[in-house]
Each structure stands twice: as structure tokens, then as C-alpha cells.
Amino acid sequence: MSDNEHWFVLPGDKMGGILIVELYGPDGNVSRQEIVVPALAGLPVVEDSGQLPVISDVQVLKVERAVFLSATIGWQTDTVADAVVLYGKSAEDLEQTSSLSKRFGRRQEVVLNELQLDRTYFFKGVSHDLFGRSQETGIQTFSTARAGTKAPSRRESGRIAERRRRESGAHVCQ
Predict the structure, then answer these.
(1) Nearest-5° Cα angle at 82, 127 to 63
(2) What span, in angstroms and rounded, lies between the C-alpha atoms of 82 and 112?
(3) Integer distance in angstroms from the first to the last C-alpha of the chain?
């Protein structure tokens, strides 16, 4: 949890209505926010099965090049859980960690940002259920070698071929 993130545990039978949060800044300013909170007593209760979450259907959903190079990893869990991805350039050294998904659900998607082009990355997904138990996927790989590339058009292909012929000193006889 970061320094600017705070969690509150509130009794469900007392919720419903407006929650007022006052934030006191270091400069003495006070910010007051009213948050509408639904009645929690009527929501379904998630029972503790006592089992680890089961992870399935792990996939690299996409590798794309926009402002930064990124990859989206996804999987399913059999229970409501969060998601994080550990990744790196070798299976023995998964030194990077994605940001933790703050959304609990059964379908997980995690975006890995600022990747390097022409690299193979190793990764494993981790999900934690509502009761603190965690499960990991096996280690898998993806490549950024072809990320965001498109085949050259016919005109571009002709120009590339002509430039290569000139650079190599080859002559085309007609």
C-alpha cells in the first residue's frame, strides 16, 4: 500500500447512505468529499471455501506498441480474486512486478508497460482471494519482437528492395 492510499473496514449493517471523508493537507487545507455508499446488508456474501483460488486459461492477450510498448496478460479464477504479474528477462529472475489490480473479479487482466522491443519476457500471474490465499500460474513467455509492426505496403516493399540493390551495388538488367 502506498503512502497516499488508505483502506477502511466498515460494518456492512451500518452502511447505506453517504460516507463523508475529510482530508487534511500538509498546508492546512481541508478537502471534504461525500461518497454515496449502497446498503451493503442486501449484497450477496462470499463464503470462504477454504480452498486456494484455481487459475485457468492464462493467455497473453496482446502485445502492442503505442506511446510505450505494453503487453496484456489475462486469466480466469474460480473465485473472486485480484491479480498481479511478476515478470523479467529470465525464468529465474522475475524482478519486475506489475501494479496490483485493485478490482476483484473472476476474469483477470494485467497490463505490463514500458517493455523493451525485441525481447523475450518470462512471467507468472498471481491471484489473491478475498481471504488472503494466493495461487500462482506456471512461468510462461511472450516476445516483443513483432510488437506493433505491420507488413510494408507493395509500394514500400519496392522502394526498400530498390534501396537495398543500390546500397549493395547490384544492377538489374532488363
Answers:
(1) 80
(2) 16
(3) 70
**Contacts of 120 by beta carbon, 8 Å cutoff, 6+ apart:** 89, 141, 142, 143, 144, 145
Nine-digit cell string for 93? 529472475
The grid coordinates of residue 111 equal: 497490463
Most confident of 15-29, 39-53, 69-83, 148-162: 69-83
Distance of alpha carbon 31 from alpha carbon 121, whole angstroms: 43
Q: How far apart are CA 120 and CA 46, in angstroms?
A: 39
Residue-level pLDDT at 123: 96
Strands 134-136 and 120-128: antiparallel
Quick one: average pLDDT of 144-158?
58
What is the model's pLDDT at position 115?
93
In whole angstroms, how far apart are CA 57 and each of 5, 23, 73, 108?
32, 42, 11, 10
